[in-house]
Amino acid sequence: MSSNFFAMVNRMKLIDRWALMNNSTKENIAEHSHSVAVIAHALALIGNKKFGKSYNAERAALLALYHDTTEVITGDMPTPVKYYNDDIKNVYKNIECIAGKRLLDMLPEEFRSDYESFFEKKDEDKELWKLVKAADKISALIKCIEEYRMGNREFEKIKTLGYHAMAAFNTSTRMFDGLMYFVVILAGGLSLVYGKITAGDLVAYMLYVTTLIATIRRIVEFAEQFQRGMTGIERFAEIMDTPVAIKDAPDAVPLQPGPGEIRFEKVCFEYPDDHNKVLHDVSLDIRAGERLALVGASGGGKTTLCNLIPRFYEVTSGRILIDGQDIRRVTLKSLRQDIGIVQQDVYLFSGTVAQNIAYGKPGATRQEIEAAARLAGAEKFILALKDGYDTYVGERGVKLSGGQKQRIAIARVFLKNPPILILDEATSALDNESEILVGQSLEKLAHGRTTLTIAHRLTTIKDYDRILVLGEEGIVEEGTHAQLLAKQGVYYRLWNQLPAEDGE
Length: 504
Prior knowledge:
This protein is of the alpha/beta class. It folds into two domains: about 1-145, Hypothetical protein af1432 (Orthogonal Bundle); about 260-495, P-loop containing nucleotide triphosphate hydrolases (Rossmann fold, 3-Layer(aba) Sandwich). The protein contains 18 helices and ten strands. The chain has helices spanning about 1-10, 30-50, 55-65, 70-75, 80-85, 85-105, 110-120, 125-195, 200-240, 300-310, 330-335, 355-360, 365-375, 380-385, 400-415, 430-445, 480-485, 490-495; strands at about 260-270, 275-285, 290-295, 315-320, 325, 340-345, 420-425, 450-455, 465-470, 475-480. A six-stranded mixed sheet has the order 6-7-8-3-9-10. Strand 9 and strand 10 (about 475-480) form a beta hairpin. The longest helix is centred in the first third of the chain and has 68 residues, at about 125-195. The model has no long low-confidence stretch (mean pLDDT about 80).
């Protein structure tokens, strides 16, 4: 019976891992486990030498050697299946436990306790298992780097072959052109000498050949452009065929107009790719017309919370209501029509200033566009442009400054006239002068609207009705600027640029 265990362990070299990438070399479980063991051992030593830890490096390497042993029974399941579906993930964990027990049962009774910790994680090995997990991720990163390098080499090879083919093709066409001219001149010259044709005939033949060659060249160029166009169409079709993750519910109805009251009821959210929980049981009431600021350290969930309102992401649990209506029960079009967003990175389309402003309300008249620009404080610089409202802004608005692009984005929202406004660090990337001008426009825009502002420059939100400080555990502090300073907590330290305390 004891031999069965070691025979099964020996099978690790026969079980190929699921290929995460196409170009890098395939590996089996044994190769992977050895790689993770080496990295885990190194991490333990680094922790001991550099950070004053007391890891058992040999024990970490040993755990790593056995960390995927159960796969000799279960096989290696593809990562997207294993980690991106909670039900399958839980079932797979149970299967791994069963597989571990089966392996232990293959050992004599007196040895099982020695091997048990390899398959059932003990509290005393908790920190070491974290090292093994980190080593597993580093191993995957190394594979990604290998894939990247091999992909680059493959791309370079393909590009080289492409250039060789293009060179050969262009050379052959040029040789054909030259050969045609040579034959016509030689034959025509001889015919002219012997009096069979006149000089005018020779010139006419030369013109015929020139026209023929030009036509052939256009056909070749068209074929090349057609091929590139088909490649572009294929890529476009791939994007258009990408399934939409967030859709209208079958019984969805248009959002009924209201003052813009927002309620979060025990909202939790985690990203589906890494299951990192960002928001934990957030309950929040935002009054209609209230100016609410969100501050806190990066990664605290400020942008995520705002992105849940227009349903850029779906909540994991809980619900969000606008004017008493569950946003999952209303149509996306009507929901997003009631929400205006001004972000740090403004996207402008390749068109005129007027066309980019009109994006906020398709079909808007020229008078409405100009009125929105005046409200946004953008009219002065627009009229100073070469063609005013008909000035071409270039791809992504490259012909405009950051402050000018921001004011066009604000003009869009003025034109849209939504009851709810989201400002995501709208002035953080601007210089001082532009920040003042854009800030004035934003103040005017926020008047009378329910406004959520994400800000790192706290001076811009000190006059807001309410300020929320978000941390890893959700809403850490809440109140006005004066109230939060009086608490001398997280906001106080952010305002005075003091270092955060442990755990914040």
